[in-house]
From TrEMBL:
Protein's recorded name: enoyl-CoA hydratase
EC number: 4.2.1.17
InterPro entries: 3-OHacyl-CoA_DH_NAD-bd, 3HC_DH_C, 6-PGluconate_DH-like_C_sf, 6PGD_dom2, ClpP/crotonase-like_dom_sf, Enoyl-CoA_hyd/isom_CS, Enoyl-CoA_hydra/iso, Enoyl-CoA_hydra_C
PANTHER family tied to this protein: 3-HYDROXYACYL-COA DEHYDROGENASE FAMILY PROTEIN (PTHR48075), 3-HYDROXYBUTYRYL-COA DEHYDROGENASE (PTHR48075:SF5)
Organism expressing this protein natively: Natronorubrum tibetense GA33
Biased composition (Basic and acidic residues): 648-657
Length: 657
């Protein structure tokens, strides 16, 4: 049995001594291969060796040992005559590449594997310049080659299986992780997804919807090391423009933004020219862009993620690659915190489809039409983590506690007040259900954070007024307060995991008080907050006591005495919520906060919460008990009788002074 092709490769020829070429040569030489670099210019070859020496020194390698494995030449015969593997890395010009491969075909041994580092041009078209297209394979390295772990291995239409497998094995031998692309399509995998992602960001700026720094801040927020404009500047705006044009010209439904063309035409290519979307100290000198963190919630990342996921769905439907390869490419190749499809399952497939439809309506472009695979997933309720199935299978549990819905999506418990017709007003079953759901989350070791929200158009409109009016005596009121409401408040305060309120709509009375009891809170811009109990002749016991831990006296008294509605922005400035954000981001940011808190030690988090709760007890427990007693008395007073009746009859109360 013959040895695998990869085991027969000792001598490697790299064609082209530019940035990619000398990076590829360095990588092979570092891995122990004998390397020849071919270029038409001796000065370029000399510069390549200098760059390799500098790079090796920075990386702590022994330059002499590795450089001894590298030879340079301008002779095709010397370069190709004894090569086991040829890697072409010249500019993205199809005629140039075809000419080079024609020469390689004439001079390289029959045993040689012929690889191209093209980023967008068809492998099959390049291979057609040879009489051995089965020996030709794509090996697309990422820049800087010495540091980037990924190599796309692309199968041309006639690439032999053993050649494709050898390219994978060789990639691993040189310390890279191969991403397998089984079909030869324009842009392959990484560029197709990246360009959908990057170009959408450019359009947002071009159309005056957002600015570069806000978009980059939002993408850093979700864990990406750089936003799209930082990446474009770093990798080269001209390179991205060339790739986008190439894909478009080869039939991909893709609009190249005018802004990108203008930057390219003006030679504002990014870091390498000293200016792109941002400016740099001098051409070729990188400096980290100062991105204002405070803008991170001012843009919704789904606008960029949705087109990328749509492209991924096309790749899967056309058997170009697999889910694992897509997520590997983005997580390892682009250093994303998680793979694209894993992130899609987090955001929800239905919400990404909605975003695509919005983008299509805005632009009128078919490129935003949601792929049938995504529509089918929505139709089948395969929405991601929130249903347990999406692109992947997820740990998921669901149960009902009276009028409260409980879900565990992986490590997050989602507790939903579920009386949408009553704006999630808190009646006795709701308080009991909330208590049971919180206890369920507390007892589950898989749960690391708990999110509290409401269904429909409200978070929670407060206590159920009709139920309060039905109490016939002080004893009825006391029983509810002492046996139901009070214990639930204590359960919420004692909850050992972070509690995050996700407010999307009205948060009045008891709803506002639940937000005050939560550890963290995020609200949509359309939400409003109030403590209007005095308007029905009652008082807010939680707001007046435990609310003191979030608000000062004047803020509490204004809320409690006037009962006026606060906007989400006002609630943020007062400290009722951490962040007021666009409506479509509340769920996402609550989940992000849950993820961030779960990165901390669970016992440390529990200790923090216990310490805080004990401090509150020392300061406020007695006063809270007093406030609850006063609430019981107030609900049975003549003033409350008039206030409750006026509320239900939708009239102003006739207070007796």
């Amino acid at each position: 049995m013959s040895d695998p092709l990869a085991d027969r490769v000792d001598a490697v020829t790299v064609v082209g001594a530019g940035t990619m070429g000398h990076g590829i040569a360095q990588t092979f030489a570092t891995a122990g291969y004998d390397v020849t670099i071919l270029d038409i210019d001796n000065d370029v070859l000399a510069t390549a060796l200098e760059k390799i020496n500098e790079s090796l020194t920075k990386l702590g390698e022994n330059p002499d040992t590795i450089l001894n494995r590298i030879e340079t030449t301008t002779s095709d015969e010397e370069a190709y005559g004894d090569a086991d593997l040829v890697v072409e890395a010249v500019p993205e010009d199809i005629e140039l590449k075809e000419n080079i491969f024609g020469t390689i075909d004439e001079l390289a041994p029959d045993r040689a594997i012929l690889a191209t580092n093209t980023s967008t041009l068809p492998i099959t078209e390049i291979a057609s310049a040879t009489d051995r297209p089965g020996d030709v394979v794509g090996m697309h390295f990422s820049n800087p080659v010495q540091l980037m772990e990924i190599v796309e291995v692309i199968r041309g239409e006639e690439t032999r299986d053993d050649v494709f497998e050898a390219a994978q094995e060789i990639s691993e031998e040189i310390g890279k992780i191969p991403v397998l692309v089984e079909k030869d399509i324009p842009g392959f995998l990484i560029n197709r997804i990246n360009l959908r992602f990057w170009l959408e960001g450019v359009r947002q700026v071009e159309w005056g919807i957002q600015d570069e720094k806000t978009i980059d801040a939002a993408l850093r927020r979700i864990g990406l090391p750089m936003g799209p404009f930082e990446v474009l500047d770093f990798s080269g705006i001209d390179v991205a423009t060339m790739a986008a044009r190439s894909m478009r010209d080869r039939g991909v439904d893709l609009h190249v933004p005018d802004l990108l063309e203008e930057k390219t035409e003006a030679e504002d290519h990014g870091m390498k020219t000293g200016a792109g979307f941002y400016t740099y100290p001098k051409p070729g000198e990188y400096s980290r862009v100062d991105i204002p963190r405070e803008r991170r919630y001012d843009f919704d990342p789904k606008d960029l993620l949705a087109p990328a996921v749509n492209e991924a769905a096309w790749l899967l439907a056309n058997d170009v690659t697999t889910k694992a390869e897509i997520d590997k490419a983005m997580q390892i190749g682009m250093n994303w915190p998680r793979g694209l499809l894993e992130m899609a399952d987090e955001y929800g497939i239905d919400r990404l489809v909605d975003r695509l439809e919005t983008l299509r309506e805005r632009s009128g472009w078919e490129e935003y039409e949601p792929h049938p695979r995504l529509r089918e997933m929505v139709s089948n309720d395969e929405l991601g983590r929130k249903t347990g199935t999406g692109f992947y299978e997820w740990s998921y549990e669901q149960m009902e506690f009276n009028t409260v819905q409980y879900e565990r999506r992986e490590y997050i418990a989602w507790i939903t007040l579920n009386r949408p017709e009553q704006l999630n007003a808190l009646d006795e079953p709701s308080w009991e259900g909330l208590n049971d759901a919180l206890e369920c989350a507390a007892a589950d070791d898989k749960v690391r954070a708990t999110i509290l929200r409401g269904s429909g158009r409200a978070f929670c409109a407060g206590d159920d007024i009709a139920e309060i009016q039905s109490w016939e005596s002080t004893e009825d009121a006391a029983e509810m307060v002492e046996e139901i409401l009070g214990p639930t408040v204590q359960t919420l305060r004692d909850h050992p995991k972070p509690v995050i309120a996700a407010v999307d709509g009205v948060a009045n009375g008891g709803g506002c008080e639940l937000v005050l009891l939560s550890d963290l809170a995020v609200a949509s811009a359309d939400s409003d907050f109030a403590l209007p109990e005095a308007k029905i002749g009652a008082l807010p016991p939680i707001g007046l006591t435990y609310g003191r831990m979030s608000l000062g006296k004047k803020s509490i008294m204004e809320l409690a005495m006037t009962g006026e509605q606060l906007t989400a922005t006002e609630a943020e400035s007062m400290g009722i919520v951490n962040y007021a954000v666009d409506d479509g981001q509340v769920e996402d940011i609550a989940r992000e906060l849950a993820r961030s808190t779960s990165a901390s030690g669970p016992k440390s988090v529990a200790e923090m919460k216990d310490l805080w709760s004990n401090m509150e007890d020392d300061l406020l427990e007695g006063w809270f008990g007093d406030a609850m007693d006063r609430l019981v008395e107030r609900t049975q007073s003549e003033e409350a009788e008039e206030g409750l009746a006026a509320f239900l009859e939708k009239r102003n109360p006739d207070w007796q002074r």
